[in-house]
Amino acid sequence: MSDSDNSVPALDIVDETFLAVPPGTVAAAFADPRAWSRYWPDLVLEVYTDRGDKGLRWTVRGALVGTMEIWLEPVLDGTLLHYFLRATPAAADGTPVALRPAGLRREFDRRARAAKGIALGLKEILEDGREPGIPPRSA
Question: Which among 25, 46, 48, 88 would be 20 to 30 A from 34, CA to CA?
């Protein structure tokens, strides 16, 4: 993609956050494509694998070109939300753009913080005040 089109994404972001709710509850937060533009307003996502309660995989266009994935792993009485973004910054016409090292570090930091912000925002909403060590509410 960048630097002589070697297909190695400039950004490789991985994040994990535990949410004390079932995977289906977390999956529902990502099920509506209209939610994607709230989470990632500068990206155009196209699902290439819908794994239901196990998550989604997308191709990414817009400000970045590459792939993104949400993997929902059942753990104890909740879900470990895994987030993967492997992409390269792109120009308006969709061609990859090579950023200088400082710019790439800023973009990495911005995208990693945004991913954690999405996960923690969902945690706050979906857990709905559940205290640590308290069983989940009955459905």
Answer: 88
Asked whether 63 and 90 are in contact (CB, 8 A), the reply is yes
Given a contact cutoff of 8 angstroms between Cβ atoms, the answer to whether 79 and 18 are in contact is yes
DSSP for 38-88 reads HHSTTEEEEEEEE-GGGEEEEEEEESEEEEEEEEEEEETTEEEEEEEEEEE
User: pLDDT of 71-112, one tens digit each?
Assistant: 999 998 899 999 999 999 999 888 888 888 999 999 999 999
* Matching residue, tokens 């989470």: 39
CA dihedral over 50, 35, 95, 98, signed as positive or negative:
negative
Angstrom distance (rounded) from CA 137 to CA 139: 6
Other Cβ atoms within 10 Å of 37 Cβ, number: 12
Q: What is the pTM of this model?
A: 0.87
Give the tokens for residue 85: 């973004």
Burial of 91 (0-12, 13-18, 19+ CB in 10 A): exposed
